[in-house]
Amino acid sequence: xxxxxxxxxxxxxxxxxxxxxxxxxxxxxxxxxxxxxxxxxxxxxxxxxxxxxxxxxxxxxxxxxxxxxxxxxxxxxxxxxxxxxxxxxxxxxxxxxxxxxxxxxxxxxxxxxxxxxxxxxxxxx
Length: 125
Prior knowledge:
- There is one protein chain.
- The chain is mostly beta strands.
- The protein has one domain (19-116): predicted glycosyltransferase like domains (Thrombin, subunit H, Beta Barrel).
- It has 1 helix and 6 strands.
- The protein has one helix at 102-116, and strands at residues 17-26, 31-39, 43-47, 57-63, 70-80, 92-99.
- A hairpin with a 3-residue loop joins strand 2 (31-39) and strand 3 (43-47).
- The termini are far apart.
């Protein structure tokens, strides 16, 4: 009998939610404000016309609606460069959280629980 991987049928570890959250991010070379349009406990889709270097580390501040900002570090798993995407493909990248303070992770979990329960999420800053 195969062991359970804990993954969902779509191959993802955690459920994802469509949102619109402001994010300030930096790769060390630049500081940018953009938005997150998809979020889970394990990562985000960061929509950005600026290039997210594949396999790079990104420092982020997420402005969850009605809460204090949370800080996280993410690893770019994949990216779509705005100059190279085809029509209908959103530029940006998928990032997996690699570091987040415990209090910030608790705030993220609380927010995701509210979204999962059907609460209409406020739009971020």
